[in-house]
Structure formats: C-alpha cells, structure tokens
Amino acid sequence: MNNLSIGVSYVQTVSIFGSKSIFQSNINRNSTPAVKMASCRKRLQSKYEIERMLEDSASEGDNVFSEDENSFRSESESQSESEECATDSDETVPPASKRTKEEGWKWIVTGDRPSKFHFTGNTGVKSAIIRNLPPEPNPLEVFQLMVHDSLWDEIATETNRFAVQFFEKNPNSPTISQWFPTTSNEIKAFFALCVLMSQVKKPNLQSYWSIRKSMHTPFFSELIPFRRFVLLSKFLHFTNNENLQENDRLRKIAPVVKHLEQNFREVYYPQENVAIDESLIKFRGRLCYIQFNPQKRARFGIKIYKICESVSGYCLGFSIYTGKKPAQAETQGILSSEAIVMELMEPYLQNGHTVFVDNWFTSPSLFLNLAGKETNAVGTVRVNRKNMPQQFKSKMGKGETKVVFSHKMMALQWMDRKPVTILSTCHDDVDMTRTRKISRKTNAPVMKPKVVIDYNNSMNAVDKQDQQLSSFPIMRRYAKGYKKMFFYMIDVAIFNSYALQKKITGKKQHFTEFRIQLAEKIIESVVLPDYPRRGRPQQGPSPARLQALHWAHFVQFIPPNPKKKNPCRDCVVCKARKKKSETRYECSKCLVALHVPDCFRVYHTTKNMSSTSTGSTTTEHVGLHSVL
User: Fold this and answer.
1) How far apart are CA 392 and CA 111, in angstroms?
2) How far lies 347's CA from each of 78, 266, 269, 342, in Å?
3) Does residue 134 carry a pLDDT above 60?
4) Residues of 60-86 as b/e, b for ≥16 C-beta within 10 angstroms?
5) How far, in Å, CA of 384 to CA of 262, rounded?
6) Is the dihedral of CA 180, 184, 190, 191 positive or negative?
C-alpha cells in the first residue's frame, strides 16, 4: 500500500471522530469536483475497514506520514511567506472581519450599571391657560381648551360646502328641499346629542325620536328634528374635497388631527412617567390600512399609537397607522416600531422622562437611542431581539432571576408562571420587593423585582383610557372611516378634559357625570334655528329654554338712586311718538325705560318706533336675533 492511500485512510479516520486534518482541508479547497466526489466516496467506508487498513500500514513503518507532513508544512510556510510579502509590498489594510450578532453587546453580570436621568420638566397645566380659567371651571370651559370654536366654525363651513357640491352633482336628490346651511352652534348641538346617545343606549338611531311611551325620550326630538339630524350626519365634513393631497391617506380628517394634536401638547405638560401603546378603532369598512389584531376586543379596525401620562391617562399625542411610510433620513436604518417611539417622544426628549413600552417596541438599540437623548426607558422585550443576551434562552425554575448588564442597560429575566424579560436603563439591580398579594401555597407575601412592579404600575395608561372610552363611545356605525376617526378623537378630547378638570379642581367626579354635564352645558350655550315642527306642542320645559340666558332681553325695575326709592323715567317709545309718559320698567340689557308689554315689544322688534300699531304707517318687523 503506497503512502497516498495510507494518507487518505488517515484522513477518513480522523474525520469520523470529528476533527479535520491538513490533508483533508487542502483536498476540499484545491481539488477538482471529481476528486471531491472521490473523497466523499472514500468516507463511506466502514470503521472496521479503516482500522484494518491502518493495522496493515503499521507493519511498513512508523514514519509513513513524515514526507507528506513535511510537504504540507512547507506549502503552508510558503503560502504565509507570500502573504507577508504581499502585505509589505501593498501596505493595504486587511479586510475587516465579519460582524458577529452581538459585537459590542457583551452582556455580563459585572457590566456597566445604568444610572437614572433626573427629571427636569415643568409639569402641569400651562400657567397662561390657568390664568384664563375660573377657580373651578365647568366641563365646557375645560373642553374648550381641547376643541376651540375655530374648529367648529371650520366643520360648519366644510359641511355646507360639501352639501352644495353634493347637490350640484345630484340635482334631483329628494333632500335638496330639506337642506339649509348649518352653523357652528348647530354642529355643537349635534355633537352634544351624540354624547348623550352614548349614555342612553338604544337599538337604532330612529329609537331616540320614537314616540312610543315605552321608549320615548322627548329630549332629542325637542332639540333637533330627526330628519335634520340625519342630514347633518350625511353631510358632516372636515375639509374641502377640491384641495385634497392625494398622497395623504388622512386627507379627509387632516385639519381635525392637526388641531387636536397641537392642543393636547400645548395645554398640559406630563409628569415623569409616560407610556406608549397601540389602540384599535373598531371599523370593518373599506380601508386599505385596516388591521387585524386577535388580542384586541375589536379585532378589526384602524390602529392608532398613543403616548399617555402614566398617572392620569391623559393623551399627549397620537399617530394613526396608514400603512408603511416612505423611507426618511431620520428613520433610516431603524425598525418601524423604534421610529414610532422616537416620533411620539420627540417633544419630551432631553428632560429625563421615563417611557414605558411593551415588547413590540422594545429593543436594545431603541433604549440606547433614548439614553443618548437623556430619556429613561423600561419595557418588556422578546428574547430573540437583535443584540439580546444569549443567557436568557436557557430554562429557569419558579422565582429564579437572571441579570446582566451592557451599555449601561440592565436586562432581567424573572420566572413567574412564564419567563418575564425586561430591559431598563434606570434600574441597576433586581431588588426583590414585597407586594400586597399573598401566596396561596406558602401563605407568604409574593415577591417581585422592582422593575416589574414599576412596569405594571406605569404601563396601563393607554389601557386605562381605552377602558373608559369603550364604556360609552360616541362612535356610531359609519361607512366612512374618517368619520369614525373623528368621533374617536373627540372621545379622546373629552377624556383629556375630564383628566384636566380633576387636576385643576382637585375633586373626583365620575366620567359619566362629566360627559352628561358637558352635553348639557353645550346645549345651554348655543342658539339653534327655528325648526319647522309637526304634531302637538311640547308639554313641560324645553331643553333649549336656557338658551335665552345668552341673548334674551328681560324686564326689570329701574334701580333706586339717592334721591328716589322708586324712580321713573320717560319711555323711549312714547318719546319717539312725541308723547311724554314715565315708567318704572327698563330693559336689563339695553338699560332704556320702556312700558310693559307693548312698548317693550315694539322697541325690540320694530325699526320705525314712531309709527303706531293703529296708524296708516306700515311697521317693519325684524327677527328677534337680528337686533341683538
């Protein structure tokens, strides 16, 4: 048997036991495909045949491999020498080695421990806003901080424009004779009725105007007729269809989104802890960016990301998901979940806030970014995220913990019923803390890591708000997604007003009572048109009876003066008719002396007061609202 065959047998023997010889590596690197196939066939020999071949070769001598080994060693030495010569001659930098998955992220027990950034924000309602509010503002006064009158005016304008555009395209529509232009006051009353509908649950819209005694609710029919309410719902619009940006998927609702986002941030500055999470607006209509989330109650809907204050649930900002966004310079090279967190946190960076996120957002690179902007971060994390420690993939027993550190960041895994993995840049140890829960098995207090307790206490801000909004949502069934989004965002504005009023007054109030008071105050503050009514006149007080407080003129006695206890003055109507007659009454707003009731009515409804009701001169009567 020649040396080559013995060498091949040696290679086969070594390869079976898991190592690789120089001879085998050279064959695999330099040989032709035919030689490689031959070597593969040689490896298929049994272990017994290989041992037999080695025993036979041992009789021929012990140094059968010396020549081959020397030749291989000389080849390797010559190759290294040639490489050194090439390096010296070219003087080029050798190529960089491949980056490993955890390069620069060495998670060790004795690594750099995080240090918490100090909070420097000026929390609370802005001082300029507080100065313009009474000591105990009512729900409407607080709500007007979120939704200004300018937004209602814009909605009324666009609703009227959309109605005109609709009737131009549909001149034979049966509703063209029923429509007349709306006003901001009527839009407010429409919105107030929507709020009350969320409190008074009925099977369908017609039921609120039903006259059946078993389900009659006279309040709705006395405020706005059913046909008018349906028309307002149909033509409700927020922007001009002729000036839409085709690339913006929120173009139909853009003015409302911009208005609310700006006011949410300008009115109030949050406390240290904030939370970022997603919500789902229930909707099954036709939209290209509808999401399906089996973990949410709605399952199908429009996804919206929100940043809320952890203590109160006040919504500081939001971002509606409309599909994959085009690449931008500031979000280049980072995950979409990381880009959302950086976008929502942008106004609150560099102030030492602590942001809490769930495992969809959390990653080591995101937390490193936030730490570079002096912002603390805490969040549950998935073990298979990039740059996560490999130690967390092994099994643990109940109650066990693992803690490692890197880049001034703590990664903790704690075994509860399931493994709980958390990243934090403001906790530096496990710090097992006693909770109020008592274990049923050991009858001892349940111990949890402090970072887990802090996460549970601060992460539920968005869920707390969603729980309140889902109880009495304003949203009704709409075929148009932008109308659904409008009512959801107005619902969020109501909740923010509720949270602000509790902070300003320091008094606790149920959310339901706040909403009802808000709707009542809106109805009392608006002036509605004189709708044509059918049927019998109403019995009992009208819900709009208090509107007269804002525009009506009332009769009062002329107040006493130092000379007379019951003074009198000349009636201005009689004086205009060249008659001298005194009276003890005057108008509370105009402060002019008038006889009651004839002269009082003539003064407020007639342009030419000199004419008499029985004379030949025709009197010009005007509407009551036009003289106010």
Assistant:
1) 16
2) 64, 11, 10, 10
3) yes
4) eeeebbeebeeebeeeeeeeeeeeeee
5) 38
6) positive
Which two tokens mark 160?
Answer: 């009227």
Structure-block tokens of residue 535: 């049927």
Q: Radius of gyration over alpha carbons of the chain, in Å?
A: 40
Pairing state between β 585-587 and 582-583: unpaired
> Which ranges of 506-611 does DSSP label H, i.e. alpha helix?
511-525, 572-576, 598-605
The pLDDT value given to residue 45: 57
Compute how many other C-beta atoms are within 10 angstroms of the C-beta atom of residue 346. 11
Cross-strand pairs, 318: 306
Q: Which two tokens stand for residue 216?
A: 């009659």
Residue among 184, 192, 141, 148 nearest 519 (CA): 192
Task: Report the 10 Å Cβ neighbour count for 286.
Answer: 9
DSSP for 193-234, written as a single string? HHHHHHHS--SSGGGGG---TTT--HHHHHHS-HHHHHHHHH
SS3 203: coil
DSSP 437: E
**Coil, helix or strand at residue 370:** helix
Q: What does the pLDDT look like over 476-502, one tens digit per residue?
A: 667 788 999 999 999 999 999 999 999
Task: Compute how many other C-beta atoms are within 10 angstroms of the C-beta atom of residue 406.
Answer: 19
